[in-house]
Every structure is written in C-alpha cells, then in structure tokens.
Write a structure and sequence with these properties.
Structural class: mainly alpha
Helix content: 55-70%
Strand content: under 5%
Number of strands: 0
Radius of gyration: 16 Å
C-alpha cells in the first residue's frame, strides 16, 4: 500500500491497522462532501446543527464524530446539561425547544431509515417548524452527518484526533 492510500497514525488505535486516508485517496469526492456539508449548514442555527450531528453520531456509534461535535458544541456555548440529554431527548423534552425536538426526531428517522422509513408524523412535525428551504437543508445536514459517520467508521478514525 502506498502512503497516499495508507492513513496516518490518527486512524490507527487499539490494535487497528492503518486504513485508507479518504481525503488523500479520493480528493474530489472528499471536497464534494465538504461542499455539500457547507451548503447544508447554510442558514441553519449552529446549535441545532451540532445537536443533529451529535444525535446521528450517537445512533451510528461514531465516537470520532461524536467527540468532534460535542467539542464544537461546547465551543459554541452549548451547556453540558443539554449535551448529556441529547441521547435521551424524548424523555428530557423540556431541555429542547419544539423545533429542536422536531429536528432530532427527523434525524433519528432518517438515520435509522431502514428500521421503518420516515413516518409522516415525523416529517410533518419537522415541516411545521422549518420552511421548505430550511427543511431541505436540514435533510441535507442529516445526510451529510450520516455520510461522515460512515466515512469515519469505515476508515478507522480514532476519537479525539480531529483532523479538520
């Protein structure tokens, strides 16, 4: 394997062997994903963006992205209390606004789409809080974090080694 295909040491942890460095091996695809991610975020509340990314990362069990987005949320002023409640947002509904709860419900449905699709009531709840362009960008954000999660998990990214 060449150095361009091997990943650097931050991809290797706990007995894992090095995997492909996607950004170097497929730069056009990586740049396209970065562009899609940036377009998705445009005009969305930054706190909401982090909540969505945290919840999807929890569901996908992506420690790399979960660490990155909880760190980003803290830097943006998110409280520890709310961060701890994201995993149980339905039971801790009073920590989140109705709009945030609608976004988290949509995040779960889209992330777990194979387990039952996106129910009409979940979609309608989100549509009641987001206009069409916002809803489209929210969906795009959910698509991108799911892609980032899969990329990090597939390439063996190690939590705590933010490579942005």
């Amino acid at each position: 394997m060449t150095n361009d295909v091997m990943s650097d040491a931050t991809n290797v942890g706990a007995g894992r062997r090095a995997r492909v460095n996607f950004a170097k091996a497929a730069p056009k695809a990586f740049k396209a994903l970065i562009g899609f991610d940036a377009a998705a975020r445009e005009g969305l509340d930054p706190a909401l963006v982090e909540l969505v990314q945290i919840r999807s990362s929890q569901l996908n069990k992506c420690a790399y992205c979960l660490h990155m987005h909880t760190t980003d949320a803290r830097k943006a002023g998110e409280s520890e209390e709310r961060l701890h409640m994201v995993a149980v947002w339905e039971e801790a509904a009073h920590f989140f606004t109705p709009k945030e709860r609608a976004a988290l419900a949509l995040t779960e449905a889209v992330t777990l789409v194979a387990q039952g699709g996106v129910p009409d009531e979940v979609y309608d709840r989100a549509a009641a809080h987001f206009d069409e362009p916002e809803l489209a960008r929210l969906l795009a954000l959910i698509f991108t974090i799911n892609t980032w999660n899969r990329l990090a998990l597939s390439t063996g990214k190690v939590a705590g080694t933010d490579e942005r």
